[in-house]
């Protein structure tokens, strides 16, 4: 989880899954604990699977007591990266660069429809944009294949578990 200043009073919060590359992005007028909590709720609602852990930089908004309590309520652990180590949060940093190059460079950030345009960009990013790091798959392809793999493994375990017969 990370945030990036797009313009004056415009911050993009970003959450990206480490394995699939599935990403959630939202815009807020300031970086604070209240907006971070709102974003956490959005991430929990939109991620296609349960969240086990967050990795964040050491921004005050991620160290707020209310944010830490909410993570504990959801059973989500938190791992802050070391100070002055943006390379340890490389996926979030890289995807924000992609947003700047491929999305923000093509739109007017003063557009009143910006939240809707960002939502469309997020959909395109997760469902249609292929990545060499994912062997030419989209993030949603990865989510689907991981889900099917887990389901198959679960069924295999059930089939291999001996049952008592009377």
Automatic annotation (TrEMBL):
Extract the Pfam families matched here. Answer: rve (PF00665)
Its protein name is Integrase core domain-containing protein
Residue ranges annotated as coiled coil are none
Spell out where the chain crosses the membrane: none
Question: What InterPro entries does the database record attribute to this sequence?
Answer: Integrase_cat-core, RNaseH-like_sf, RNaseH_sf
Q: Which residues form the Integrase catalytic domain?
A: 1-147
């Amino acid at each position: 989880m990370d945030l990036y200043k797009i313009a004056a009073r415009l911050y993009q919060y970003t959450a990206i899954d480490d394995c699939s590359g599935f990403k959630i992005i939202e815009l807020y007028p300031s970086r604070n604990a209240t907006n971070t909590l709102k974003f956490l709720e959005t991430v929990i609602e939109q991620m296609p699977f349960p969240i086990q852990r967050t990795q964040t930089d050491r921004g005050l908004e991620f160290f707020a007591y209310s944010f830490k309590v909410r993570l504990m309520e959801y059973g989500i652990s938190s791992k802050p990266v070391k100070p002055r180590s943006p390379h340890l949060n490389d996926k979030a940093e890289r995807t924000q660069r992609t947003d700047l190059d491929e999305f923000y460079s093509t739109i007017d950030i003063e557009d009143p429809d910006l939240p809707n345009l960002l939502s469309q960009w997020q959909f395109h990013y997760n469902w249609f944009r292929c990545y060499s790091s994912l062997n030419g798959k989209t993030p949603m392809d990865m989510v689907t294949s991981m889900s099917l793999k887990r389901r198959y493994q679960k069924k295999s375990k059930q089939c291999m578990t001996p049952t008592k017969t009377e």
